[in-house]
Design a protein that fits this description.
This protein is of the alpha/beta class. About 30% of the residues lie in helices and about 20% in strands. β6 (about 135-140) and β7 form a beta hairpin.
Length: about 180
């Protein structure tokens, strides 16, 4: 396996038991294993559910753990909850909650933090951790600015951006790239 996106659903045993019927510790152990023992590129996604896993304290603890145990270059995506299937009485995640979570994660030292399930180009784009220039612009599923070399370096300051990169044609826009999956 070359890459994975892993849901870190919350950072409390209460949430994992109540909402998921599981436990937090095995998830954290798996993340540490991936980081320390494999070459798998992985990213984390947390669906922020109002009143369940969206407190500043929990997000602060979670992002501090990520930096300490996985490093500052693991991408973290905070996604907005929409009551479309279960938990219909729970409201949508407010945009300001996503922005707050992103701010906490950046303050705690994570370099690549994104918001999802909302239109917010500023908080969905990738910025160079060295010079601060936008190197990859995203808005929902649309890619815009691409200021990276073919090897994934910032075209402004030549800093290597964390990730797996290959040559691509620009501008990207909304087109899809076919992926070959070999079983």
């Amino acid at each position: 396996m070359d890459a994975a996106n892993i849901d870190l659903k919350a950072f409390s045993e209460r949430f994992y038991k109540k909402v998921c019927g599981g436990e937090l510790a095995p998830v954290l152990e798996t993340l540490e294993y991936l980081h320390q023992e494999t070459s798998v590129w992985f990213e984390l996604t947390t669906l922020l559910i109002p009143g369940e896993n969206d407190s500043e304290r929990e997000i602060d603890q979670m992002t501090q753990w990520v930096v300490e145990h996985l490093g500052c270059d693991v991408p973290l995506h905070f996604s907005a909850f929409h009551p479309d299937f279960k938990m219909m009485e729970t409201p949508r995640t407010p945009s300001n909650t996503l922005v707050m979570a992103r701010h906490i994660a950046l303050r705690n030292g994570l370099n690549y933090v994104y918001v999802g399930n909302v239109h917010n180009e500023q908080c969905s784009s990738t910025y160079c951790p060295s010079c601060g220039h936008k190197v990859l612009s995203r808005n929902w599923f649309e890619l815009g600015t691409w200021a990276l070399t073919d090897t994934g370096k910032c075209s402004h300051c030549n800093t290597q951006i964390a990730g797996r990169f290959g040559a691509t044609s620009k501008p990207f826009g909304r087109r899809r790239i076919p992926v070959n999956i070999v079983c």
